[in-house]
Amino acid sequence: MTDTLIVRPARETDLPAVVALLADDELGAAREAPADDPRYLAAFHAIEEQRGNTLYVAVTGDRATGPVVGCFQLIFMPGIAWAGATRAEIENVRIARDRRGSGLGAKMIAEAVAIARSGAAAMVQLTSNNARPDAHRFWKAQGFEQSHQGFKMML
User: Fold this and answer.
1) 59 contacts: CB under 8 Å, gap ≥ 6
2) Keywords of this protein's UniProt record, alphabetized (predicted)?
3) What is the pLDDT of residues 34-53, one digit of tens each?
4) Predicted confidence band of residue 1 (pLDDT cuts 50, 70, 90)
């Protein structure tokens, strides 16, 4: 039996589940704070207030209140390049560890791409840490191509 997946904008009450997802691997465990850290709530409200920036959760079950099994943030960025194209950036993507390989991640990303397309984005882009080879295989399986080398500077 396949789980029904619902992707919806996150609610404040979803934050503990989202933080738990973000912290559930070696990289996340090293950088995330306890879920009750007030910075998460401040960031959530800043995302809510910024036009074209939404934190989404994926829930299973028949209602939009089912358990949170995934999350992603989708940010629309108008640009000058590509004749003024808008890009959609996907960030903070996670699927619950016990649901990986079930197809739910592919369904969630298909929803993210559909949202980007409905928002008139010309492309969807993302970064993935070099230490995540399984994630790289996942992205390629979803139709993404590894076209650029990413760089970051921590401030």
Assistant:
1) 5, 6, 8, 65, 66, 67, 68, 69
2) Acyltransferase, Ribonucleoprotein, Ribosomal protein, Transferase
3) 999 999 999 999 999 999 99
4) very low
What lies within 8 Å, CB to CB, of 118 at 6+ separation is none
User: Is 123 a domain residue?
Assistant: yes
Q: Cα(133)–Cα(2) distance, rounded to whole angstroms?
A: 26
Its domain, for residue 118, covers: 5-141
Is residue 152 one of the residues assigned to a domain?
A: no
Kindly report the pTM of this predicted structure. 0.93
Spatial distance between the Cα atoms of 25 and 1, rounded to a whole number of angstroms: 27
Contact 141, 103 (CB under 8 A): no
Q: Would you say residue 149 lies in a domain? A: no
How many structural domains is the chain composed of?
1
